[in-house]
Amino acid sequence: MNLTELLKPDLCVVGIPGTEKEEALRNLISHVSRSNNSLNEDAILNAVMEREALGTTALGRGVAFPHAKLDGFGSMVVAVASSAEGIRFGARDGKPVQLVVLLVTGPTAPDSYLKTLGAFARISRDSDRMERLISAPSPEELYKVISSYEEVTGEWLSGENNNNSTSPIQK
Asked: How far, in Å, CA of 118 to CA of 31, rounded?
């Protein structure tokens, strides 16, 4: 499985409303739940905020990786939001967050949960790509920037470079 199989353009948000962590997360989770009516918006928000209470998921360089595992939750949901204005997220470097990558899955998440976090962390270390993500004018363009990362690197969720047409973790 690759990133673009998990993330779809309708789960990308450009210019997420909110300059405070909880407000921005509430808006992103609301957007996600509107695109998938089977999701419980309040349960996701509560789980994400409980995780944030343990310590910020804003790791610096303008990126946050809020995530939660919920009982009864099947497949992984990935959503990405940009904020040119920036969100006060309590990042370790004190800088506002401009890219939020939300991951939600069940409590027995497969390795792809951590691999997805790792793949987005690698994307965030590329300053040119981060600039393109933050300045993307539309959700479709935000999605294209992420998908172009896979095309250029051949990186699948296995964390390996693989230029074959199938993912090494697919059977």
From this structure: 24
Contact 67, 102 (CB under 8 A): yes
Give the pLDDT of the chain (171 residues) as one tens digit per residue: 577 788 889 999 999 999 999 999 999 999 999 988 778 999 999 999 999 999 999 989 999 999 988 887 777 899 999 999 999 999 999 999 999 999 998 877 667 778 888 888 888 888 999 999 999 999 999 999 998 876 555 554 444 433 333 222 222
Beta carbons of 77 and 11 less than 8 angstroms apart: yes
CATH of 3-153, one of 2.60.40.10, 3.40.50.1820, 3.30.428.10, 3.40.930.10: 3.40.930.10
**Domains of the chain by residue range:** 3-153
